[in-house]
Specification:
Blueprint: E1 3-6, E2 9-12, H1 14-19, E3 23-24, E4 27-28, H2 37-48, H3 62-99
Length: 111
């Protein structure tokens, strides 16, 4: 079982936390007046660490559902932006390498 560190110990990875939610006809449920904060925290931590594949359940309803939909939209936008930046960076590096001779030292790393 993969754990993520938190301020108060550890929270389960999002998929594990989602799997532990109460079931309603085989689907995870979250009542309107209750959110599983461990699931949200784990998803936020994964996103902070660069995992843009993490998503909150699309089966939540009411306010939890709106929070999950908004979070998923933000993560998807970040995932798309990261892919675009990677593609553009590759083009810039390839164009730069074609214009100049190979450097005698490796390219400096961004810090």
């Amino acid at each position: 079982m993969m754990k993520r560190s938190t301020l108060n110990g550890t929270a389960p990875a999002p998929n594990e936390a989602i799997a532990s939610l109460p079931k309603n006809n085989g689907k995870p449920k979250s009542p309107d007046d209750s959110l599983d904060l461990n699931v949200i925290l784990a998803a936020l931590q994964n996103m902070r660490n660069g995992d843009f594949t993490v998503r909150l359940p699309g089966t939540w309803v009411g306010l939890p559902g709106k929070i999950a939909d908004t979070f998923n939209d933000i993560v998807a936008a970040n995932q798309h932006m990261a892919q675009d930046l990677k593609r553009h960076w590759s083009r810039i590096c390839c164009a730069q390498q074609q214009k100049s001779p190979a450097p005698s030292q490796p390219w400096p790393r961004a810090t």
